[in-house]
Amino acid sequence: MVTGASSGIGRRLAVELADRGAVVTGLARRAELLAEVEEVLRRRSPASGTAVVDVADTEGYREALAAVEARHGRIDLLVNNAGIEELSPVEAWPSDVYRRMAEVNYLGAVAGTLSVLPGMLARRSGVVVNVGSDAARAPEPGHGAYAASKAAVAAFSESVAHEVAGRGVRVHVLYPAWVPTAMGLSGTEDGGRLPPTPLRRSEAEIAALLLERMGGRRVDINASSVPLVAVVARAVVPVWYQRMMRRWGGGGSAPTERGRAVRPY
Ligand SMILES: NC(=O)c1ccc[n+]([C@@H]2O[C@H](COP(=O)([O-])OP(=O)(O)OC[C@H]3O[C@@H](n4cnc5c(N)ncnc54)[C@H](OP(=O)(O)O)[C@@H]3O)[C@@H](O)[C@H]2O)c1
């Protein structure tokens, strides 16, 4: 199961899994894009398919997962990849943005994870991958809603990973660094800078990394180790770190006024 399979990282991962013979079901909201993806998946793995699902609709998402379990007997892998990202400058009082980010990015991942875990635990086998973001480890100004939703994904996933450890089930958090998808490129049209080269990854690289690492012992799957420097720097040289993040994010001014200085990753 791959959510957010209509584009970007999710689409690529779904196709790579089908290439390896997995029976893949891709979920997303845009039916016309999913129809194209379904054709590609079926050529590689005839029992694969897609379903139109909004992961923010907890009941609808749970039902979709239950339908796949009923049809195929079990779910071995769930990748909660569906995600959205919007700026949330404080001046806009963006409580609706916070709610949307939480419902899709965080509660979507929670609903998916909790739906498949009982079956996986009963079979003592299964993998859940929840897609996080380095924005959670190094939040920039103006990205509070997105960063917080991804931090929640990471904390939830890590706690659950510990809880199910030793019972045949692995739960991971994937940190994709920066990928030039629709989300990755949004905001760069108006001259926003792209992240430095060490942070750039392709959809193919992310899919390959996930296929290699998932099921392994490490909870975190990092596409780049560069953002981990931020974690160390904030502990060792916090004032320098804060200055760097404010400069990186545009000096702390409202992102809507200054435009986007650089993509979050
Ligand atoms: N690109 C990056 O640099 C980067 C960096 C760090 C983390 N990420 C994370 O990677 C994941 C994939 O993003 P991407 O870069 O591949 O962007 P993308 O091309 O925009 O893909 C996002 C996917 O999520 C789906 N989606 C969004 N809201 C949904 C909802 N409510 N229900 C079901 N599906 C939904 C979209 O499909 P529909 O619109 O058809 O529903 C789309 O397939 C996201 O979780 C993102 O936060 C990306």
Explain how this protein is built:
This protein is α/β, with parallel strands linked by helices and about 260 residues long. The protein has a single domain, classed as NAD(P)-binding Rossmann-like Domain (Rossmann fold, 3-Layer(aba) Sandwich), CATH 3.40.50.720. Helices cover about 50% and strands about 10% of the residues. It has ten helices and seven strands. A four-stranded parallel β-sheet has the order 4-5-6-7. It has a three-stranded parallel β-sheet with strand order 1-2-3, covered by helices on one side. α4 links the parallel β4 and β5 (about 125-130). α3 packs parallel to α4 and α8 packs across α9 (about 240-250). The protein starts with a strand and ends in a 7-residue tail after the last helix.
List keywords for this structure.
265 residues; alpha/beta; Rossmann fold; four-stranded parallel beta sheet; three-stranded parallel beta sheet; 10 helices; 7 strands; 49% helix; 11% strand; binds NADP nicotinamide-adenine-dinucleotide phosphate
Helix and strand topology:
Layout: E1 2-3, H1 8-19, E2 25-28, H2 31-44, E3 49-52, H3 58-72, E4 77-80, H4 95-123, E5 126-131, H5 144-164, E6 169-175, H6 182-185, H7 203-213, E7 220-222, H8 228-236, H9 238-248, H10 255-258
Parallel strand pairs: 1-2, 2-3, 4-5, 5-6, 6-7
The structure holds NADP nicotinamide-adenine-dinucleotide phosphate.
